[in-house]
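User: For a reading group we're discussing how well predicted structures match intuition. Take Cholesterol dehydrogenase. Before you show the prediction, I'll give you the sequence so everyone sees exactly what went in.
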Amino acid sequence: MTVLVTGGAGFLGTRLIRSLLAGASGPAPTRVICVDQVASAVDDTRVVSVIGSVADPGVLRAAVPPDITTIWHLAAVLSGQSEAEPDLAMAVNVGGTEALLDACRTAARPPRFVFSSTVAVFGGPLPAVVPEDHALRPASTYGTTKAIAELLVLEASRRGLIDGIACRVPTVSVRPGRPNSAMSSFVSGIVREPLAGIESVCPVPLDTRLWVSSPTVTTSNLAHAGRLPAGMLQEVRSINLPGICVTPAQLLDSLERAAGAAVRNLVRLEPDARVAAVVEGWPGAIDASRALRLGFSADQNADALVTQFIGERASS
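Assistant: Thanks. Here is the predicted 3D structure of Cholesterol dehydrogenase, as structure tokens, for the group to look at:
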């Protein structure tokens, strides 16, 4: 069984590849093709790295062999960089997705295509809980490119080129490592940096509602999307992945309970209108009841997000 993970050398891609190889969500693949700008860090003979961009036809010819069964498309220009470089975001997030879908024509049978979308496809005035059938009205370049790519995935599924599913991923927190270019990077930073003794900034009001999922649950849900029987999806192939609604204040309360007031006090509020304008336009809570019925999972609360990160940090 051959599978492909684009963006496979990134944080989520690496976790997903390790999970797949461990057989956490079904039979382990015999070959995992990782497409990214650098080689995969996963040391396993079953992993084959293809270096380059998903927008490069030559890369895709090497990455999508006829025996491909499942594709997880995670590669993207993130929200902060998308706002700064909209042409690049359109070329990679839309053009790269279109090129990857086109490459699927060479597959012996339509592969399951798991597209990593985002809650940023929603925008404008939003209800307290965004329903399943809420219209897409993104308020950022990133959200717009992801919404367009969702439609491309759905159209390719309708035409029988792929067996697609678009997973609207919540903000992932708490991420290890260095900050990335996402507008939501602070959601991890206000926990991760203080625990390392480093000051951190929260650029949005402390009562800002955020739809969040831990790295472990997000990885598990993406893997589950690759195994979900097509018949369960029926005609609706876009899924709002489960998350929990938290605020920066709640995350800081959890941080203080876990590590003490001195650690919490390393975080200072420093409003950034540019970041707030984007983040406050995202849903604070989403109706994910359909996803839960389909076997996707959710975290418990903000304390669980913080303690999970602390546990992983201690064991790394």
